[in-house]
Fold this protein.
Amino acid sequence: MAAGEEITLTGHIQHHLTNAKMCTVDGSFAFNKACSEAGFWTWHIDTLAWSIGLGLIFLFLFKKAANKASVGVPGKFQCFVEMVVEFVANNVRDTFNGKSKLIAPLALTIFVWVFLMNLMDLIPVDFLPAFAGFVGETAFGVDSQDVYMKIVPTTDINMTAALALGVFTLMIGYSIKIKGVLGFIKELTLHPFHAANPVVQALLIPFNLLLETIALIAKPFSLALRLFGNLYAGELIFILIGAVGLMQLPLHFLWAVFHILVIVLQAFVFMMLTIVYLSQASSDNH
């Protein structure tokens, strides 16, 4: 958007929904608008920066709590961390039917990391992007309207899809580890329809393979789109609230009170579905 151009509501929304992009053009780095025709390989640097930064904050805080843990009277922060760990451990114990040292730490990481990324949605939508625009304009001579920053990584489908693909890879890995390659293939081809007659069973293989493949692929899609859709819708409402000017903070607070439930619930749902999917993958009942 050119300097001095009137900012419309549509322009305001589009600006806040646009990621800061970095790509390579003719062997050199390019940013934002120059990346529109750069092809497939484009990085959303705001999503990467905020997600990695929040992940490091999670590791730092929990490592600090572990280092200062005592058997005596624990501090408030240690109590809080222990409550979170116990909450996740109980859900893993009640849901995961197999035996694995990875599932509980994985579930804890997913729950806290997704929660922290979702929590960024509570920061007033104009504050950090406006600060980034100010820095870009004063330090680098870039028009503030050409500086983009989305501070909620889970409103980027690339981030939620990456998380879901990570879980999907673990699902396939656990299935093959527990059942073997042959067992995994049998699970895809001999269920849900089964027949005692070998000829009939062979005829049912294409239908079983189609149904099981759809059910398998639907899991990462549901993980990615559920988290993305809920947080994206919440962010859009915050952006609309940010367009009203002086009433932004009171309205922001009212919507944030409700949105806290969404933030926590979506982190919990992503964690629980991950545990359930990995439990199903680890089951060798068939």
Q: What stands out?
A: The longest strand covers residues 21-25. Residues 1-5 have pLDDT under 50 and may be disordered. The chain has one domain: 9-282.
